[in-house]
Structures are given as C-alpha cells and as structure tokens.
Amino acid sequence: MGRRLAEITLDNLDDLPERCRACVFWELDPASACDASQVPLEKEAWVSDTLLEWGRCGQIAYIDRTAAGYVLYAPAAYVPRAVAFPTAPVSPDAVLLMSARVLPEFAGRGLGRQLVQAVARDIAQRGVRAVEVFGHTGAVGASGCLLPTDFLRAVGFRTVRPHLHTPRLRMEAKVPTSWRAEMSQAVERLISTVPARAV
Question: What does CATH list as the number for 3-193?
Fold first, then answer.
C-alpha cells in the first residue's frame, strides 16, 4: 500500500471527510451563525484566505488513492474559535493544531502520529517554535473537533495550561538538520576549543 501526505488546497478540499467538510467549528467566531448550506463555502473561504496570507494550513494522508486522514493547523489569529477556551490564549510563538482525524478503517497504522509529525516539521521549517492544541479529557470533544489528551500526550505533547476538560498542550518543533550541518557545527565547536598558536 502506498502512503503519502499532500498539502490541503482548494483542489483537494473535497477529499476531506464529510464530517470535516461540513464543520466550521474552528473557522468561525463562536457568536457567528452559519446556515448549513453555507458551511462548505465558509470552509473553502477560510482555506483560501489562510493559504494566501499564511501558507500551508493542513495536510491529507492518502493510502493508495484514498484519503485516510487529515490535519488542520494555523496561527491562532486565523482561528476565531481559539479565544473561546478557558485555557486560551495560544502562545505567540506557536501555531494551533485545530483538528485531526484518521478514518476508522485506517486506524492503528500510525497515521495520526505521522500527521502530527508532519505539522511539526512544516512549522519548524517556517521558523515557528511550537504547536499547541486544546485537548479534551473525554473521548470526543465539542463537535468532535477536539483531540483526546491521551492521544496528544502519546505523540509528544505536554500540558502547559491544565484544565479539567480542555487543557492546552504544547509540542516544541525541532528544526530538522542534515548530517552535514551537524558535522559542520561539531567541527566549529572543536576548532573553537583549540588554543591559537602564537605567531
């Protein structure tokens, strides 16, 4: 089975599971009302605006040609719902992991971890220090949009703001380095420890 990740764009937005495609929990202000028939248009507008202004904001995991899971993320300024949590605000040096899901038929294959790691790699390459998320202590959060804290801790998040139901968790993003860069840094450290010879 071939496995690949693809950036979410307007071209593949319809590959998101219907449950996500029909949800604007994160994308709209908590006080905003949206007619159900307008939800797909609101989702599309949010993705379009975020791609134009900030860049990549989600990824889809495919197994063969079937969309098996997804993840959405963006700076908190692009996520109106982020202010509604008792553990807000998101730290200024972090992006918010909004939602992630692996379809039940693909569960247990490490796709959830792979999607979270893809977010961490992406933001590290863009100079962002961390990813934060509002977890949920139960199995399913509000509108099914919050991730269980047990899963989040298992993939490397730690609690930074405790709460009985919706703690805020954080994972530092490490900038990937090549072996050449590591070797160069090691040589520079070694040279700096050698005393200079008198001329």
Answer: 3.40.630.30
